[in-house]
Amino acid sequence: MHTVWKGSISFGLVNIPVKLHAATENKDIKLRQLHKECHTPISYKKVCEGCNQEVKDEDIVKAYEYTKNKFVVLDQEDLENLRKENEEKAVEIIDFVQLTEIDPIYFERTYFLSPDSTGAKAYSLLRKTLEQSGKIGIAKIIIRSKEQLAVVRVYQNALVMETIHYPDEVRSVGDVPNIPSEQDVVPKELETALMLVDQLTTTFNPEKYTDDYRNALLELIEEKKATNTIAASDKQRPIPDNVTDLMTALQASLDKTKKPAPRKRTTRTKKNA
Q: Could you tell me which residues belong to the region Disordered (predicted)?
């Protein structure tokens, strides 16, 4: 399992060397885009709008737009130093709270925590402490140059870390349009709705739920493979790499569009008989 982050977690004077691993994966089926005419894959290039030229990665800098068309350029070395400075810090559990106190809207992504070679005992101690207390830990961690608020909790026999949004990242419900105000509910309708909920209430079993759309799409792809498979074109349009080649191509295009010159008529002189 790929290691996303390596560091340590501490609570009080207990320090646990750990590794972070993504606990979930995206199962979306990725579809490529082809040119309808020749079935060549469509590519996307980074183009400078001012120069109208393709830009290489080494020619790109990062900047913050603090007002319209006004930027502060951020040096890559400064960003790297800032990232390392924060990543090297141990993740400290700041508080312990009840899981039920956090609304699911705050949760973002889940990671498995595994102990490093010297951290098994401390890892087990934190796991048992969380199990018996019924609490979860609140911590901060830097992942991919972003400081994340996170919770540490027990899942089955492992510790997991779930990144959560900061309060200012969750939009206000007041901004949601067309939410009806409090209205009187007909008692009979409410009674019927509660009966329906009661009839559909069961124990949560995640294995019961499947992605029907993804399964149907996979079946469709398998059917199409037998009757409708195409090979992507490997044609590559020649790209001039210097001014001479560009001028040659332009001249050839110009010559191709020229109309042939009309043939001159020759007049023959009649010989005297």
A: 252-273
Is residue 18 assigned to a domain? Answer: yes
Give the structural domain span for 159.
5-24+63-169
- Cβ contact 63:74 at 8 Å: yes
Residue from 39, 27, 88, 81 nearest 232 by CA = 39
Tally the C-alpha atoms within 13 A of residue 217's C-alpha that lie toward its C-beta: 9
Two tokens at 3? 């290691």
- Specify the 3-state DSSP secondary structure of 112: strand
Token pair 């309060």 is found at 167
180-224 confidence digits (pLDDT tens)? 887 778 889 889 999 999 999 999 888 888 888 888 888 888 888
DSSP reduced 3-state for 107: strand
Say which CATH number the domain at 9 has: 2.40.290.10
Residue 97 lies in a domain: yes
In the block, tokens 């207390």 appear at 133
Contacting residues for 98 by C-beta, under 8 A, at least 6 apart: 134, 135, 136
CB-facing half-sphere around the CA of 54: CA atoms within 13 A: 6
